[in-house]
Amino acid sequence: MIVCHCTQISDHDIRAAIDWMRNADPETIITPGKIYHALGKTADCGGCMPLFLDTMRANANLEVPAQLQNLGAGRIQESEYAGRRQGHRLSQQSAAP
User: Fold this and answer.
1) What DSSP letter does each residue of 16-81 carry, written as one string?
2) 3-class DSSP state of 92
3) Residue 36, number of CB atoms within 10 A of its CB
4) Is the pTM of this model over 0.85?
5) Whole-angstrom Cα distance, residue 81 to residue 42?
6) What is the pLDDT of residues 28-73, one digit of tens each?
7) Residue 20, Cβ density class (10 Å: 0-12 exposed, 13-18 middle, ≥19 buried)
């Protein structure tokens, strides 16, 4: 089945690229961009992306390697640290005379 009409990528092409990448490097994170690159193509309109992603997810080799899962479990929650202190704008700070 053709998944991307713009670049003529089929579901078979996507499965083959995922299998090839997983065999070449078992620890790699596989993304749509890497699949396009492996097939020597570039994304065009993006209309295929929902079907492209569904096809990727259906492949058992897409799974994130066990040693890379839960890496962010020990990180600080974003809600705990917003990045900037309160009153970072000049209009919010008290002006010194």
Assistant:
1) HHHHHHHHH-TTPPP-HHHHHHHTT----S-TTHHHHHHHHHT-GGGSPPGGGTTGGGGSPPTTT-
2) helix
3) 19
4) no
5) 37
6) 889 999 999 999 999 888 899 999 999 999 998 888 777 767 776 6
7) middle
